[in-house]
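User: Before I run my own analysis I want an independent prediction to cross-check against. Here's the chain; please return only the structure tokens and, at the end, one sentence I can use as a sanity check.
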Amino acid sequence: MTDFQSEKDLVRTYLQALDASDAAFCGRVMEEYCADSLVWRGVHPFNEITGTENVSTKVWAPFKLAMTSMKRRMDVFMAGTDALHGDGAVWVTSMGHFMALFDAPWLGIQPTGKIVMLRYAEFHRVADGKIQETALFFDIPHVMMQAGLHPFPPQTGANLVQPGPTTHDGLMFDAQDPAEGVATLDAINRMVADLGKWDLGLPLEEELARTWHDDMIWWGPAGIGSTFTIERYAKQHSGPFRAGFSERSNTKHVCRIGEGSYGGFFGWPNFTATPTGGFMGMPATGKPGEFRVVDIYRRRDDKLAENWIFIDLLHFWKTQGVDILARMAEVPRT
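Assistant: Structure tokens:
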């Protein structure tokens, strides 16, 4: 069992250097800390990119030109060995917001000249002293909403700039008790096993109560929103979501880690499901869609207490024939 300090230090130094660099120099930072063959996964329209030069050119340089005076407001930082594949892969995870002044167009979204808060979550696989893989999820629809656009029908949860953990202890820069990480993974694994294919056979609220505290907080993506308590989560997200889909595939994750009271995973995709009507107010297409998802959890005692969710909704709707980005680029801001 490693304490992951060397991997954490590498990623922290990389993030600090990347944040401090301007559009012209972010490529040099990536060359120093990332493998030349870096595999980078991001939400639509970035998708999968290979190589540090391509990532810096397609992702970071345009972002830094649009989002000036950018600051990273990190809420969770953790590391762990992937618990799924038995290959000893070490992943380092960061989550929070990028705060910036939205001063130039980005992805066709027109600037506001005001503060923008961009939710993010990222996973970095570290090996041989370099970052070999990255998954970075931006909540782009939340930026659209802050810019006065309405990419989706009214959501079932609350639209918020989301805070970090209630306990304010998510930045685990130092080594943690390994037993705590094991307990967190156990809670996550039990929840995932219950989720299965939505066929546990219990009423939804009873199913959720097996692995969630009654006062759970579910910090969902823009377009779905956030909700609080099992009863409201069942009513405002989980119930409508399950009712709107069929043929849910098995859950698949690229990695799943836990450290201290926190854990998380991402999939590429996590699962597929076929919309049968009602999801996000959109009509059913009957076509299977991919759900690329990041989940970050906080455990309290033996159950889950908070959950931050990132869903690549732009990719999902693109698979359904709806290009949200292109549609929003044609809509005036209100």
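Sanity check: The first strand starts at residue 34 and ends at 42.
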